[in-house]
Amino acid sequence: MNLPTDDTWISGYWLELLLAALVKRWLAGDMAVAERLEMLSWLAERPSSHGGISADAIAALPMANDEVAGIVEDALRLNTDEEATGFNLLSRTSTFMALVGLQPVLRDAIVPAEMR
Amino acid sequence: MGKLSRYSTTPLARMPREKELEQIGPHLRALPPKAQRFVLEWFYGPSDYGAATRAARIAGYDEGENADNAKIAAHRLLHSPGVAAALDELGGKFLRPEGLAAIKEIISIGYNLEIDSRVRLKALTFVANLGGYIPETHHTVHVEQSRKETVLIASEEILARIAELAGRVGVDAQRQIEAAKTINGSAVEVEHEPAN
């Protein structure tokens, strides 16, 4: 099928995947128990969220590596109270593809084993 | 124009032919045609407020004898395991043909003066690495985490909850428990020096 390459076609699905990978990375570090519980709960709620990611995909998603985490965090800092610039950037298909280039195992969460 | 009508109801996705559906995978193929249309419109369409409702409307969930409110239908569909599986499948399939377009886009991000310079630098570093121009890069990651006012004690109940959630989301439950115990199990008395 023809797949759109125009970046006005953005998807919250990519954003949710990237945020989940970043949160998994944060969970590998030190933090207060309340914060750890909150982050784990946020991850567990993703399958029922607007993003439509399956529970299997969340479970298989690796934590973001140094480069991906750095870029996603930088992008998030672009968000302001008025504009979700960072979220919009991370929702772009091309941004996701670029980040998969930096960390190919990100795709394993959503690519069935037989397709890899 | 109200929030709910911000998106055009002009379809954005082309419905795949049967052979194309076979290539995408079994989960999308298993959905009824209306749900397939919803998945494709939601995936390829905008992602902001009202986007799912728009996809449900285009898929025809607010039409016919068993008409459903498009917003309710969108909510129901996005909570459906079949739709979630189809979205995962589509996401994975989308990766391959987009690879070259992605590299092109990284270049455009790198030269876009309206984007934060740190993001641009990383984009250009990535492109340079692809071309073999930079043999080694060093990245410093600054992680910002907000302090929580709530103080939770790592009780057996809390640790059990952490283990259960960790297992569900695919992180090492034992490490999460150990980390939670460590933070709550040590206290260091700090003697402050008098201010000058």
Terminal residue distance of chain A = 19 Å
What's the main sheet of chain A like?
Answer: none
Give the class of chain A from helix and strand content and strand pairing: mainly alpha
Proportion of beta-strand residues of chain B: under 5%
List SSEs of chain A in N-to-C order. Answer: HHHHHH
Radius of gyration of chain B, taken over Cα atoms and rounded to an integer in Å: 24 Å
- Tally the helices of chain A: what do you get? 6
- Unreliably modeled segments of chain B: 1-5, 134-139
Number of strands of chain A: 0
Integer average pLDDT of chain B:
72
Backbone CA Rg of chain A = 14 Å
**Percent of residues in β-strands of chain A:** under 5%
**Percentage of residues in helical conformation of chain A:** 40-55%
| Quaternary structure annotation | heterodimer
Number of strands of chain B: 0
Your description of this structure?
The complex is a heterodimer of chains A (116) and B (196). With 116 residues, chain A is mainly alpha-helical. Helix content of chain A is 54%, strand content 0%. Chain A has helices at residues 12-27, 33-45, 55-60, 66-76, 85-91, 93-102. Chain B has helices spanning 18-24, 26-30, 33-44, 51-59, 70-78, 81-95, 99-110, 117-130, 156-169, 173-185. Chain B has ten helices and no strands. Chain B has 196 residues and is mainly α. Chains A and B meet through helix 1, helix 2, helix 3, helix 4 and helix 6 of A and helix 3, helix 6, helix 7, helix 8 and helix 9 of B.
Brief overview, please?
The complex is a heterodimer of chains A (116) and B (196). Chain A is mainly α and 116 residues long.
Topology:
The complex is a heterodimer of chains A (116) and B (196).
Chain A: H1 12-27, H2 33-45, H3 55-60, H4 66-76, H5 85-91, H6 93-102
Helix pairs in contact in A: 1-2, 1-4, 1-5, 4-5
Chain B: H1 18-24, H2 26-30, H3 33-44, H4 51-59, H5 70-78, H6 81-95, H7 99-110, H8 117-130, H9 156-169, H10 173-185
Helix pairs in contact in B: 3-4, 3-6, 4-5, 7-8, 9-10
